[in-house]
Design a protein that fits this description.
Elements: E1 3-11, H1 14-25, E2 28-32, E3 38-42, E4 52-57, E5 64-70, H2 74-83, E6 87-95, E7 99-105, E8 111-117
Parallel strand pairs: 1-4, 5-8
Antiparallel strand pairs: 1-5, 2-3, 3-4, 6-7, 7-8
């Protein structure tokens, strides 16, 4: 069964937000190389309950938290989203060496991400 495996928070200033969460909760934060201003947040040690997350610069100016759901196939779940009344907000795209993702909106207007692990993604 697909599970929430990651969260993203849309922020205005990623470095400032990373410092905030580090100082308040002790979370680790490091910037990822890539085309987007993205930081990984580590919220605790592996093997303990909880998930890690990330900080991304807001695209539309609206603050929000986006849950990423691990799926076996982004293509399959995009079909399921559409056939059940959801919409695709950002089409499938590759994260080289990591996998594929797409952002969708549910029937209530909530944004979420579906993510497929695939190290051969280009």
């Amino acid at each position: 069964m697909p599970r929430v495996v990651h969260f993203e928070m849309g922020v205005q200033d990623t470095a400032r937000a990373a410092a905030f969460y580090h100082h308040v909760f002790g979370w680790g934060a490091y910037q990822v190389d890539g085309p987007e201003d993205y930081w990984i947040l580590t919220t605790g040690p592996d093997g303990e309950p909880g998930i890690d997350g990330g900080l991304i610069r807001r695209q539309d100016g609206l603050p929000r938290t986006i849950n990423s759901i691990d799926v076996e196939s982004v293509d399959l779940y995009l079909e399921r989203v559409l056939s059940n009344g959801g919409t695709v907000s950002t089409p499938k795209k590759a994260i080289p060496g990591v996998g594929y993702l797409a952002y969708c909106t549910d029937t209530e207007g909530n944004l979420f991400c579906i993510f497929e692990t695939n190290p051969s993604a280009e």
